[in-house]
From TrEMBL:
One of its GO terms (molecular function) is transaminase activity. Belongs to the DegT/DnrJ/EryC1 family. Coiled coil: none annotated. Keywords: Aminotransferase, Pyridoxal phosphate, Transferase. SUPFAM superfamilies: PLP-dependent transferases. This is DegT/DnrJ/EryC1/StrS family aminotransferase. It comes from the Bacteria. It comes from Faecalibacter bovis. The keyword Oxidoreductase does not apply. The keyword Repeat does not apply. InterPro entries: DegT/StrS_aminotransferase, PyrdxlP-dep_Trfase, PyrdxlP-dep_Trfase_major, PyrdxlP-dep_Trfase_small.
Amino acid sequence: MKKIQMVDLQSQYQKIKAEVDASIMNVIESAAFINGPEVKQFQEDLEKYLGVKHVIPCGNGTDALQIALMALGLEPGDEVITADFTFAATVEVIDLLKLKSVLVDVNLDTFTVDTEKLKAAITPKTKAIIPVHLFGQCANMDEVMAIAKEHNLYVVEDTAQAIGAEYKGKKAGTIGNIGCTSFFPSKNLGCYGDGGAIFTNNDELAHRLRGIVNHGMYKRYYHDEIGVNSRLDSVQAAVLRHKLPHLDGYNAARLAAATYYSDAFADIDELVTPVISSDSTHVFHQYTLRVLNGKRDALQAFLTEKEIPAMIYYPVPLRKQKAYDSGDYVDADFPNTDTLVTEVMSLPMHTELDEEQLVYITSAVKEFFGK
């Protein structure tokens, strides 16, 4: 049995090596390293795949979130609501822009934002919501959009972990005012370095976004607004362009592995397997389950001894991180987040898991629980 990895990018690459290598060499030979033809082609391909009017490629997923907020014309002190249980990039960009991050609890089953808590957090200073489509499935976008409409708020979807997922037939990232994603190598659609993209159906926002990613320029050397330097380079676009046609197949392979896991663990009362919302497909960027009765860390240690990697996403709520601890929050408002950080554990999840590996992993988990 080959070594089990959280993400097996090497084996995935071997299956598309010839086409990827040829595309990379074409970029090198053309020397069109920045904004070359591969970037434009990938942009158009992704627009078609997502069914969205505008895709603006950029340097990484964190930049995508920052640039999205910059395009909305928010003022220092304006409040942006997002989930307490997610990766730090989501809140990092809010505070970096001198906006005020407002964190709320998540649902215990889907790990996505609790819309009742979201409603309760709205103040006259609230200007935007960032729902995070965590671990591979969409937040409750009907509720999010209804709340946004009622209070005249922007919605920026964090789709870094859910590209290809669908909410009631619409692709994740295409429902709010702006969608953002990451092409970090381990993502469902990952490049071989850093990369990201921003999506919108709004022509005016698309124009602003295109200027902001390129130093605030719409005409060379004429800077109409403060921007940043955040571009997807042509080599990464070449990789992504050839991986995009495989994305639905990759997501199907992840779902198959997740189904195998969940079926194998069905009779273990101390495990809560991932819940798939009836409104959203799940593309399983992570297979994250809950380990009850305080056994999570012991199970992780047991799997480590068996050379099975298992990760904890995320061990500390954002509101308790040193960088973001404002002292404004009351723990009683975050019962689900505070439960999840003690229970969640993610098993290996990628496109190359084979049956031998899945049998080994699930057998080890069963052994731990005496099954």
